[in-house]
Write a structure and sequence with these properties.
With 184 residues, this protein is an alpha/beta fold. The chain has helices at residues 2-22, 30-40, and strands at residues 43-44, 49-50, 55-57, 62-64, 69-70, 75-77, 83-85, 90-91, 96-97, 100-102, 111-113, 116-118, 123-124, 129-130, 135-136, 141-142, 147-148, 156-159, 164-168. It has a seven-stranded mixed beta sheet. The longest helix has 21 residues, at 2-22.
């Protein structure tokens, strides 16, 4: 009997996740989606915008600061540890941020996880991948298509596979991300 209850509860949680991912996150009005996102993640700061088709994995480990813009088809993974996103962070489309991975040297394909921290005013360009255990410093920029496997110092610009420092950002970081399109 106990196993049946556990299986029913697991199925219920899976169905709830399916509804959120496949229905709610495809609904074209952000005010509606925001209600459900706030119930899914640990923290969702004021202002900012989360576009349609953003995927949250174990949202209770995900914190999003104020004024963040998260573009479509982005994956935010909280399964392997905490994912902490600071204030005024710009995450472009199709970015993957992982807190969970596999050990390629383990005979049984063991999983391992670590926290990911993205500090204030970071800009992550399209199709970048952030791996577990990475800290991206305040004001840093991650180039399109980059794979970040190591920490990025504040105000540094990184690009490539694996990502390497290619420059330094020269900005006072005074901007606020406040674009909120109607049907996205």
């Amino acid at each position: 009997m106990k196993k049946t209850i556990i299986n029913f509860y697991t199925a219920f949680l899976g169905f709830k996740d399916y509804l959120f991912r496949e229905w709610i996150m495809k609904f074209p009005f952000y005010a509606f989606r925001r209600i459900f996102i706030k119930q899914t993640v640990k923290k969702l700061g004021e202002g900012g915008f989360v576009m349609m088709n953003v995927e949250f994995r174990n949202g209770k480990n995900i914190e999003i600061g104020e004024g963040c813009f998260i573009n479509k088809h982005t994956l935010l993974d909280g399964r392997g540890g905490k994912l902490l996103i600071g204030n005024h962070v710009d995450i472009a489309q199709e970015v993957n941020i992982w807190t969970l991975s596999h050990d390629p040297h383990d005979d049984f394909h063991k999983v391992w996880g670590k926290d990911v921290v993205i500090e204030d005013y970071v800009w992550i360009a399209s199709r970048a991948t952030i791996m577990p255990g990475v800290r991206i410093g305040r004001g840093a920029v991650v180039g399109a298509g980059s794979i970040v496997t190591k920490d990025v110092p504040p105000m540094m610009m990184v690009a490539g596979v694996p990502a390497k420092i290619v420059g330094e950002r020269k900005s006072s970081l005074k901007y606020k991300l406040d674009w909120q399109p109607w049907f996205k």
